[in-house]
């Protein structure tokens, strides 16, 4: 593994160039360009606040940053997995031309998703500070361990989806369907207290997305550090997904090209 990661690092100029090319292609001809990274989550937050704010009878100054943080985290995970499902097919021409570690192709996708995620997360911090009337110094401290864990999770999801898509081209649709179902079981548009009040608190304990939401929401929304158990649970999920991605990629590293 250390030697493999060293090869990935030596090819950094290549996968960084691919990530920049993806961003340029995405915003080519766009009037607002990268500003869409801010406008899209803001627009969705405003729409859902109007739709669900009164329904849930919540204070919008609390609900708006809560919702924006949840949507931002969810969009990062979905984009990493869904777009990552095409990473090897998209990079087929490069794979055939040069022997490089295959992990750089899902990494290319995750870098683009992470770019938009960091921009939107900064917006979450600003909105939360504005709604609460203060900025807590613990917010950036609490986010420091969360960001690399989320990055590794996105990388492993993109790798898993990418390898599976090579063997089963319907993986893209399956991943979308699974995330769509998981969305309604995850406290993104509704608050966790609503599940607890209805005796459904067990859903919070079995949902693998909840620890990552807590790692971001507690520092951003309340200015406090998450408990160590939250970080430990998130680390365990990342370790499990990364192990699965490494094992699957190692099995197909030499023969994946013949499946493309």
Structure classification: mainly alpha
The rounded Rg comes to 19 Å
Low-confidence stretches: none
What is the count of structural domains? 1
Number of strands: 0
Outline the structure in words.
The protein is mainly alpha-helical. It has one domain (33-259). Helix content is 77%, strand content 0%. Helix 3 (36-56) packs across helix 4 and helix 4 (60-84) runs antiparallel to helix 7. It is globular and about 55 Å long.
Protein topology:
Blueprint (H helix, E strand, L loop, with lengths): L1 H9 L1 H16 L8 H21 L3 H25 L2 H4 L1 H6 L6 H29 L5 H6 L2 H22 L3 H13 L8 H6 L4 H5 L3 H13 L5 H25 L8
Helix pairs in contact: 2-7, 3-4, 4-7, 4-9, 4-10, 4-13, 7-9, 9-14, 13-14
Question: What characteristics describe this protein?
Answer:
0% strand, mainly alpha
Brief write-up:
The protein is mainly α and 260 residues long. It has 14 helices and no strands.
């Amino acid at each position: 593994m250390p030697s493999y990661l060293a090869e990935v690092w030596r090819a950094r100029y290549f996968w960084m160039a691919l990530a920049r090319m993806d961003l340029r292609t995405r915003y080519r001809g766009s009037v607002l360009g990268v500003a869409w990274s801010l406008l899209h989550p803001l627009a969705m937050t405003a729409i859902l606040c109007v739709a669900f704010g009164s329904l849930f009878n919540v204070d919008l100054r609390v609900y708006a940053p809560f919702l924006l943080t949840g949507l931002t985290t969810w969009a990062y995970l979905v984009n990493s997995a869904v777009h990552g499902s095409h990473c090897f097919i998209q990079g087929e021409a490069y794979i055939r031309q040069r022997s490089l570690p295959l992990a750089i192709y899902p990494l290319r996708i995750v870098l683009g998703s992470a770019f938009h995620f960091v921009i939107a997360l900064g917006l979450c911090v600003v909105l939360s500070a504005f709604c609460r009337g203060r900025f807590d110094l613990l917010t950036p401290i609490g986010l420091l361990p969360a960001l690399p864990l989320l990055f590794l999770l996105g990388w492993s999801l993109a790798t898993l989806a990418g390898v599976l898509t090579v063997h089963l081209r319907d993986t893209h649709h399956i991943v979308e369907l699974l995330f769509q179902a998981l969305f309604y079981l995850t406290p993104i548009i509704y608050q966790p207290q609503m599940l607890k009040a209805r005796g459904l608190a067990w859903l919070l304990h079995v949902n693998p997305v909840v620890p990552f939401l807590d790692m971001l929401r507690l520092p951003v929304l309340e200015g406090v550090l998450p408990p160590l158990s939250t970080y430990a649970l998130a680390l365990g999920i990342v370790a499990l997904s990364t192990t699965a991605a490494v094992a699957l990629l190692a099995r197909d590293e030499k023969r994946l090209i013949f499946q493309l």
